[in-house]
Amino acid sequence: MGSWRRSRAEDKAGLTIDEVTAETLDRKIDSFERFDRMLASAEAWRNNALREIDRHRETLGAAIRQAVDATQDVEFRDVEIGETGGGPPIGFVSPKWPSGRRSSQ
Fold this sequence. Notes:
rod-shaped, single chain, 2 helices
């Protein structure tokens, strides 16, 4: 029913569908162009943000690699471990105890 009305209106005005489409585009072209500029601006902003993320990721990755390399180059020595009595070591400050109270083992 809607297409019948459109055809009847077109016939009444003496316009073809191509002419109606062209007229509509002519009236709305400013909106399309404005939307296209907004889209291009958003894409540029996104690309810049991604480039900054990549730059920071590279810097962080290099710092982590350097820290890992430095850790791997450290020489370790074996230490004999004595048996413990099951309590905290002497001088251990527990966060559960009032401040300054130390274990007496």
